[in-house]
Write a structure and sequence with these properties.
Elements lengths: L19 H10 L12 E5 L5 H9 L4 E5 L3 H9 L7 E4 L3 H4 L7 E6 L8 H14 E14 L6 H11 L6 H17 L3 H4 L2 H12 L2 H8 L7 E2 H10 L3 E5 L12 H8 L4 H11 L4 E7 L9 H8 L3 E4 L9 E4 L2 E4 L2 H13 L4 H7 L7 H13 L3 E4 L12 E3 L2 H8 L12 E2 L4 E2 L4 H13 L4 H16 L13 H22 L3 E3 L2
Parallel strand pairs: 1-2, 1-4, 2-3, 4-5, 5-6
Antiparallel strand pairs: 5-8, 7-8, 9-12, 10-11, 13-16, 14-15
Helix pairs in contact: 1-14, 6-7, 7-9, 7-10, 12-13, 14-17, 16-17, 19-20, 20-21
């Protein structure tokens, strides 16, 4: 893949927007019948990086068939090293063009996060060829990219950095550091670019707080090219794809567009025109779009949405006492009526239910399913609720535990070797990742080895932390005057009260008899 940076690995992270259950939910919400994620399906991530998301999909859906493709051999090495225990995944260290003749299955899901804006025309053509060849009919494509018009004030960063660092000697990391210093010099001395461009000042602050690998991969690729939604949609149409919606749930809801602009959207001749208007109105800077290999859908009817949601269940992330009827989402305040939503909140804090089960418990008829669909969609908008593939597990008091999969065991026990900020065990209950801090993973690993209440947990964690400080790393940021043993014991007790219960509920661990 010409001119794409491969000298250093990119940041390893889990991207929940790429999750099959989430993609299916958004497709159903927009009136399209998605692949059934409760049965065997095939999944491919193009430009999978270090493979974190692809590995988690394979672990959370053990009946799926997953493939990760990336040109960076170090990415693929890391991805394979973290896939211990998974039998349903393979990684290919090839370019998109080299992937075309590979003996691959046809996929229900193809995802490409952070690729489209950073590669040239040749690689984009190869992506479209790959999708045209390997995406099944009615399959879903997820595509994210830097977008216009939101990037219009930031586009000069790419050229400024490229021009400044191009003739500098040293590694790509040293060039990035020098370029960042140059930008800080321009800003500190009130250059016209920064003084007349407030968004540039904010973006520079973001770069200053970011990992160097993000700065390099975001701005040092030769082909960085933000695009308008309508131009990307035109390219996707050439591959036989139909625009479905935005992976960010709130972006699909008309009420999230400011009131003065809603009538403008109503004048649009089709969904592409409406979304083009909306993207400009909202000044999109980064987009997460979903396409399907199918014909355009009619305006979605709520009964059809209920059918397409099928057996996907919904449940609360928090206890009933922590749920809020007024929430901020996408810069919009969502106020939910207590007479309706308190009942639904109570149901979903106690159990995980399909839309039709919610409808039945509310005492509504099948003719009223549309209102229940709308209620459920609004609950999900508040970001206080999860999609569930199956019921939460029962929580039992225990003094020792085992992991329910070899993959999750490996993630926790080998937490210090994880190429990411967090450790991400996978939940077959939600089909999603469950992020755990590395400090919690250190203690969980010791609890698994010695037993939950054993003092050896404290000793083991203390010895690691002291040795880590001696090596000059101090990854947990302890200061010399802190009582480390006391803090470790406090964290262990907090894990016993909360985290162990959650890990049981989401099927990541179970009590050992």
């Amino acid at each position: 893949m010409e001119d794409y940076i491969t000298e250093i690995p990119y940041i390893s992270n889990y991207y929940c927007d790429l999750n099959p259950a989430h993609l299916s939910f958004i497709a159903a919400l927009n009136g399209f019948r998605p692949p059934d994620v409760l049965k065997n399906f095939s999944y491919c991530e193009l430009g999978c990086g270090c493979g974190k998301t692809t590995n988690i999909v394979a672990a959370a859906y053990p009946y799926s068939d997953c493939t990760g493709i990336d040109i960076n051999k170090e990415h693929i090495r890391i991805a394979r090293s973290e896939s211990v225990g998974l039998k349903n995944i393979k990684f290919l260290d090839v370019s998109f063009r080299e992937a075309l003749p590979q003996n691959l299955p046809r996929f229900d899901f193809i995802t490409a996060h952070g690729i489209w804006s950073w590669v040239g025309d040749s690689a984009r053509t190869d992506i479209l060829k790959f999708v045209r060849k390997f995406l099944k009919p009615n399959g879903i494509l997820y595509l994210s990219y830097d977008a216009m018009p939101g990037w219009s004030q930031l586009a000069p960063f790419h050229k400024i950095i490229f021009a400044y660092a191009n003739d500098k000697k040293g590694s790509i990391t040293e060039k990035a550091s020098a370029a960042l210093t140059y930008l800080q010099f321009l800003n500190g001395n009130k250059s016209a670019f920064f003084e007349r461009n407030p968004e540039a000042k904010i973006f520079l602050q973001t770069l200053e707080r970011s990992d160097a690998r993000y700065v390099i991969h975001e701005l040092f690729n030769k082909h960085l090219r933000p695009e308008y939604f309508c131009d990307v949609a035109s390219d996707m149409k050439k591959a036989g794809l139909t625009f479905v919606g935005n992976s960010e749930h709130f972006q699909n809801c008309r009420m999230m567009t400011p009131e003065p602009f809603r009538k403008l959207l109503d004048t649009a001749s089709d969904k592409i025109s409406a979304e083009t208007h909306r993207s400009i109105i909202m000044n999109d800077r980064f987009r997460r779009d979903i396409y399907m290999k199918c014909k355009p859908s009619a305006v979605p009817q709520n009964k059809k949405i209920a059918d397409y949601l099928g057996n996907l269940m919904f449940g609360a992330k928090k206890p009933l006492s922590d749920l809020n009827l007024e929430v901020q989402t996408g810069g919009y305040t969502l106020s939910l009526r207590p007479d309706i939503y308190l009942k639904i909140f109570e149901m979903l804090s106690e159990d995980q239910l399909t839309v039709r089960e919610i409808n039945q418990k509310l005492g509504r008829s099948e003719k009223e399913i549309g209102e229940t669909v709308e209620n459920t969609v609004n609950c999900m908008l508040s970001d206080q609720f999860n999609i569930f593939l199956r019921k939460r597990r029962n929580v039992e008091h225990c003094e020792s535990f085992v992991f329910t999969s070899e993959y999750n065991l490996n993630q926790i026990v080998n937490w210090d070797g994880q190429y990411s900020k967090y450790v991400f065990p996978a939940s077959e209950v939600t089909g999603n990742a469950f992020p755990v801090t590395k400090k919690s993973a250190l203690l969980l690993s010791a609890m698994y080895k010695f037993g939950i209440s054993s003092d050896k947990v404290i000793d083991s964690a203390y010895e690691f932390i002291v040795d880590d400080i001696k090596k000059g790393r101090n990854i947990f940021g302890f200061s010399p005057d802190q009582d480390i043993r006391y803090l470790i014991r406090f964290d262990r007790n907090e894990i016993r009260k909360h985290l162990l219960n959650e890990l049981q509920m989401f099927g990541i661990i179970c009590g050992k008899s």
